[in-house]
UniProtKB/TrEMBL annotation:
Pfam families, per the entry: Zincin_2
UniProtKB keywords: Hydrolase, Metalloprotease, Protease
Record's compositionally biased regions (Basic and acidic residues): 415-424
Organism of origin: Isoptericola sediminis
Entries under InterPro entries matching the protein: Zinicin_2 (IPR018766), Zinicin_2_N (IPR042271)
Superkingdom of this protein's organism: Bacteria
Protein's UniProt name: Zinc-dependent metalloprotease
Biased composition, class Acidic residues, residue ranges: 465-476
Region (Disordered): 415-482
Molecular function, one GO term: metallopeptidase activity
Keyword Protease: yes
């Protein structure tokens, strides 16, 4: 350690630089933990050795902070970065007036929706959230959605880094000169564990970046078309609503009410169509499980990167590291997902437009602005594509809206809402191609099912369980069992 500077402040700064490669913005927290346990950070880089038992306890804590992860996504890293990104452009606390205005808009929206759909209100609480509150509430859902592909990415990154670094341990991870203290140090960690922990941390950064970016764009809890809340609730983010309303020739109150209608309509659908949540989540997860990681592309991305630079590692995963080839099963899953997202968006768009027409003078241009916003995509869609290799974009929402409008014209709101009665009734791509033929195709399908049911009933009715003629005696089956 003779090459270390004599100045204690300079030695502490060297330690800070070494730890920053792992802990980033949490470095000061780590140093504070050291001081709280009576350890002088400067002494760790030279001078008298601390008490061995105390040092061993501290190093165990540092090891857990570096390597611990309950799954393929390091939840602590994801949470910390999401909060940082959420407030990067400002996240002022909501005033009482903002909160009251937003929750009142959600309550008014429910009244207007009652007049145009038989689907009842979601029954949950109404919330006005800051961006940070949105992150806290939705981050668990994002972590579950990306878990299947995150596991593959963590394994691939560990493989690539292991190939590049070999078994050099902590020194290869940006900790040159880190001393081995009594009881062991970070350099004693199992390299495979370190690599997997690093992969989990890097993917946690991806998730955090995605959630934080989304928090600056969304108006509520349902904008992405997939339910993100465990509890039944409707939400508005007044800061984002105000940002969207800037420069529009529409009063803020109208913009807020229209967005509240969309939020409340989404919530009704996700709450009262019990199979829809699992259907959408299942399609995302099924597609993600089939993702393959292009190891050559990933190796090219991370080659030459300073592994102490976590931002550079996160950027490497933003490149084209997902396999270019999709299986036939994935293509079919993707088509079903895009169709389902379009149907959700189309139904919400049609219902919100109908409910707002009599109340909001600018409802038509507002609807068109939201349509274009969803169709064009943005950082949110691109970020999610970097997470699981697909975009959550309802590409055919106009066609879906046309289908629902046709159903209202021919059968009233009941016919429009009946689409959600059962997964088997969900329109497919051919119905979006030809909305006017949906009812005829549905009737033909119903007749076919009725014919099959009748044939089965006839077969089962021709003979009893033992091949005997069916009996009119209601107690015959009981006597046969006895």
């Amino acid at each position: 350690m003779s090459d270390l500077p004599d100045d204690p402040d300079a030695r502490e700064e060297m330690l800070r630089d070494a730890l920053r490669g792992i802990f980033g913005d949490r470095t000061d927290e780590v140093l504070s933990q050291m001081r709280a346990q009576g350890l002088d950070p400067a002494a760790l880089m030279g001078g008298a050795a601390p008490d061995p038992a105390t040092m061993q306890r501290l190093m165990s804590q540092l090891q857990r902070m570096f390597t611990s992860s309950e799954g393929p996504v390091n939840t602590e890293v994801a949470h910390d970065l999401a909060r940082q990104v959420a407030v990067a452009e400002g996240d002022p606390s909501l005033t009482g007036g903002q909160a009251k205005s937003a929750t009142e808009a959600l309550r008014v929206a429910e009244l207007w929706l009652d007049a145009v759909t038989d689907l009842p209100p979601s029954g949950g609480a109404t919330h006005a959230w800051s961006r940070s509150e949105w992150v806290e509430a939705t981050l668990p859902a994002w972590q579950r959605l990306v878990a299947p592909v995150a596991s593959s990415v963590a394994d691939a990154l560990a493989t690539v880094l292991r190939d590049q670094l070999g078994d050099e341990g902590a020194g290869a991870l940006g900790l040159p000169g880190m001393p081995v203290f009594p009881g062991g140090g970070l350099g004693d960690l199992d390299p495979a564990t370190m690599m997997r922990g690093l992969g989990s941390a890097v993917y946690g950064m991806q998730v955090g970046q995605a959630a934080g970016t989304l928090s600056r764009e969304v108006f509520g809890a349902t904008d992405v078309g997939i339910p993100l809340l465990e509890d039944h609730a409707t939400v508005l983010l007044p800061t984002n609503v105000a940002k969207f309303a800037e420069g529009l020739d529409t009063p803020y109150d109208e913009v807020q009410l229209y967005l509240a209608l969309r939020e409340a309509a989404h919530a009704r659908l996700f709450v009262h169509v019990p199979w829809l949540r699992s259907h959408l989540h299942g399609l995302v997860e099924r597609y993600a499980r089939g993702i393959t990681i292009d190891l050559d592309a990933l190796e090219e991305q991370v080659r030459g990167i300073d592994l102490s630079d976590q931002e550079a590692l996160r950027g490497a995963l933003s490149g084209d590291v997902f396999g270019l080839h999709t299986t036939e099963e994935q293509e079919a899953t993707l088509l079903r997902l895009e169709t389902a997202l379009a149907l959700v968006e189309g139904w919400v768009s049609e219902v919100a437009a109908t409910a707002s027409l009599a109340h909001l003078p600018h409802s038509v241009p507002l609807r068109e602005m939201i349509r274009r916003r969803r169709a064009a995509g943005g950082p949110a869609e691109h970020t999610f594509k970097s997470l699981v290799g697909l975009e959550l974009r309802p590409r055919r929402s106009r066609d879906a809206a046309a289908l629902f409008a046709h159903l209202v014209a021919t059968g009233g709101p009941e016919a429009r809402d009946a689409v959600w009665d059962h997964p088997d009734l969900l329109p497919g791509p051919e119905d979006l191609d030809d909305p006017t033929g949906y009812l005829d195709r549905r009737r033909a399908q119903d007749e076919e099912h009725s014919d099959v049911d009748a044939a089965l009933a006839q077969i089962l009715g021709e003979s009893g369980p033992d091949g005997d003629e069916p009996s009119d005696d209601p107690d015959a089956e009981d006597r046969r069992t006895d």
